[in-house]
Amino acid sequence: MHRGRAIQVDMLKHLLSCIGEYKKDTIIAPIFVILEVIMQVLIPFLIAYLIDFGVERGNIDLVIRLGGVLLLSALLSMLFGIISGTYAARAAAGFSRNLRRKVFYKVQDFSFYNIDKISASGLVTRSTTDITNIQNAYQMMLRVSFRAPIMLIFALVMAFNINPQLSLVYLAVLPFLAIGLYLIISNADPLFHKVFRIYDKLNNVVQENLRGIRVVKSYAREEYEKEKFNDVSETIYKLFSKAERIISLNAPLMQLSVYTSIILIGWLGANMIVEGVMTTGQLVSMVAYTTQILMGLMMLSMILVLISISRASAKRIVEVLDEEIDLNNSENPIKEVKSGDISFQNVSFSYYKSMDNLCLNNINLNIKEGETVGILGGTGSGKTSLIQLIPRLYDVTEGSLLVGGRDVREYDIKALRNKVSVVLQNNTLFSGTIKENLRWGNKEASDEELIRVCKLAQAHGFIQELPNGYDTHIEQGGSNVSGGQKQRLCIARALLKKPHILILDDSTSAVDTKTESYLRKAFLDEIPQTTKIIIAQRITSVMDADKIVVMDGGKIDAIGTHDELLENNQIYQEVYDTQLKGGTDNGVA
Q1: Are the beta carbons of 48 and 285 closer than 8 angstroms?
Q2: Topology of 371-382+419-581 in CATH?
Q3: How far apart are CA 186 and CA 188, in angstroms?
Q4: Which of 94, 89, 126 has its CA nearest to residue 107?
Q5: pTM
Q6: Which residue of 195, 362, 401, 437 has the lowest C-beta tally within 10 Å?
Q7: Which residues contact 246 (CB under 8 A, 6 or more apart)?
Q8: Which CATH architecture has domain 7-321?
Q9: What stretch(es) of the chain map to CATH 3.40.50.300?
Q10: How many CB atoms lie within 10 A of CB 492?
Q11: How far apart are CA 565 and CA 559, in angstroms?
């Protein structure tokens, strides 16, 4: 119970902090709601007075004056409602903007481990659907959560003031209503939690399909993808339908309460009129107050339903905000990486932070600044896991990894990553011009510097042939350039950082061998002091390296030059025979 209360407090603290500069709007909206309710509650009282002292007594002058007051009250009520709605909408939109920004900024600090834990699709759902739910609930609460109880209280006070005995009808109906609402919400709440978890799966299916649409069409798997989507969509439909069916019981419950109260008050009130203890105007106002009281209760039930939905969303948002980031700077981080020397010392690594399921096991490897190191190995041998530790995308599970003579955990993360450039096989280009994409490596780079690195990356030639050269617009994901062109642009972007360490993770797989040889020569001639690590499928990509690391099953099987490994290492011999002696150029994954 204490833990549950602590979670609720933490949730409120996070949400309230997002009100920020919209506190004024948040305060003003309820004030005008209160004024709107006062006008509405006043109207039945004025109508009763008009009937009893104006209509029944034939006092036309009083009817005209009270008619004017009623019209003014209705207009003021409408005006106050418009003002409160405007401020509530502004407060809710600003609140959601701040919350969305808070979530986005938090995600920017996530490590790969944090993203893997929550999932990219889960983060998208939280940043869109969940925050929209909270925004809607916040806007409703600014109006309805003030309007409902105030209307309820004021209407009850006025009703008891008119006829205390007749007002006891409300007290008889309330327990029945409260029990019904409790049963509805307690049964619907778990279903909404399930729905939002499955929304993550739906998002994941859509994202995977859009990212891999070319593969889907190449394999003619459209029907399979449709079936997969329909399965998840159908699950959401069934859960949501079930939840909505339960929530829909709210309306008949309210209607039953309203009509029961009206019938009882009408019957008892009519008897009181006959007995002379109540006037016609008072009965009319009592019926009006009955409607207002039960409308207030209906609005309260709507709030409870919205809170039920938004609470599920809020918990998911707070999961992101409370997620402990596992990669942080040390207390006094080192801001400068002095060299590109790399040393793996008894390094073991697991994505699950457990020694029971290691991807890398007891790695010892020393790389000197300026060396070119090739890494070969089969699928699952740990090649990519190894290089991801160098820019500290993950932390080692055991052992230590030194860059420039210092443990990577001692560095300022940004300073370290600025000196380690990683180019992946499926690296990403963003929508914008080629220049804008390249300047991700250095936003201050001149046009001359852009041309220099593009020449190094063998990209300058094809860029010049494009319609607008370096100002050519790149579509999202680089869909309007070929795989080889995309890889060369990503290499140029990485070189623009002037890194101490350049890592190419199978990032020349889409270029021909001639272009690749030009790349290797350019690296050797133009950036001799940069440490170069090349993960490759083709043995020709690494055979000229200073040393080649052969990996197998998360361990280093051998280290040596091309000639040494060709003579002494079975794995390397098999790859060589398959690719070169066999006359192919496929290599291992």
Answers
A1: yes
A2: Rossmann fold (3.40.50)
A3: 6
A4: 126
A5: 0.70
A6: 362
A7: 184, 187, 188, 191
A8: Up-down Bundle (1.20)
A9: 371-382+419-581
A10: 26
A11: 7
